[in-house]
Design a protein that fits this description.
Radius of gyration: 25 Å
Number of strands: 3
Largest sheet: 3 strands, parallel
CATH topology of the largest domain: Rossmann fold
Protein name: XYL2 arabinofuranosidase
Helix content: 25-40%
CATH superfamily of the largest domain: Glycoside hydrolase family 3 C-terminal domain
Number of domains: 2
GO molecular function, one term: xylan 1,4-beta-xylosidase activity
Number of helices: 9
InterPro entries: BXL, GH, Glyco_hydro_3_C, Glyco_hydro_3_C_sf, Glyco_hydro_3_N_sf
Strand content: 5-15%
Shape: elongated
Keywords: Glycosidase, Hydrolase
Strand order of the largest sheet: 2-1-3
Mean pLDDT: 91
Length: about 230
């Protein structure tokens, strides 16, 4: 509210938020924490103690339902480790979720799906800054992944026995330094080309928006070179 000039101070923002029913703040550190002004607002009579109790009650009710105040021995999730989270059952479920989340915008002449039994006879080129860079594959608010469980497009295709050649073209999503010669050499020798482009957290995250939807840097040029 302060950033949009609806209010003019942290104190005014705290009063307006509490009066509007807001009971939880997400902020960057204690210095810029608006709700730290609540005691001052209470002392000035801008909000009442009963109002604060009404706002806090659902927070602690939810935390109690989630078991945050229970002894660890009573929490069935406290004993789970990576062997459970990364069990074959859970990994298969993750794979199913990933497959069902794809959106196919166009499929000219039935190019897709690429069939695993045909891959060994085809030469595949996997290109682009997202083709084999595990760090850029995860979006904002993603957990810290275990490296051994990360499968880039290049690694996944190689596991299927495909004859894969690779060229990043540019090493990071901003794609400021683009090696056209590297890309063209790999693409010309391929039967099928997979171009892996995007943005990632290097380019955009929460509070770091862009003014347009264009591909960053030389990524569009990379795509045009691959198609040509």
């Amino acid at each position: 509210m302060l950033g949009h000039h609806y209010t003019h101070s942290f104190l005014e923002t705290a009063v307006a938020s509490v009066n509007a029913g807001c009971n939880l703040e997400l902020s960057y550190g204690m210095r810029n924490n608006v709700f730290m002004r609540i005691p001052q607002a209470l002392a000035m009579g801008n909000i009442t103690l009963q109002m604060l109790r009404d706002r806090v009650r659902p927070l602690f009710y939810t935390r109690m339902r989630l078991g945050e105040f229970d002894p660890p021995a009573m929490n069935p999730y406290s004993s789970l480790d990576l062997s459970v989270v990364q069990s074959p059952e859970h990994r298969n479920l993750s794979l199913e979720a990933a497959v069902k989340s794809f959106v196919l915008l166009k499929n000219v002449r039935g190019t897709l799906p690429l069939r695993a039994q045909d891959l060994s006879s085809q030469r595949l080129a996997v290109v682009g800054p997202f083709a084999d860079n595990p760090r850029v594959l995860f979006g904002d608010y993603a957990p810290v992944p275990e490296p051994q469980y990360i499968y880039t497009p290049r690694r996944g295709l190689e596991m299927l026995g495909a004859n894969v050649s690779f060229a990043a073209g540019c090493s990071e999503p901003w794609c400021k330094q683009y090696s056209q010669a590297e890309l063209v050499k790999v693409v010309r020798a391929a039967d099928v080309v997979l171009v892996c482009l995007g943005t990632g957290v290097d380019v955009e995250t929460e509070a770091k928006d862009r003014s347009d939807l264009s591909l960053p840097g030389h990524q569009l040029e990379l795509l045009q070179d691959a198609v040509q």
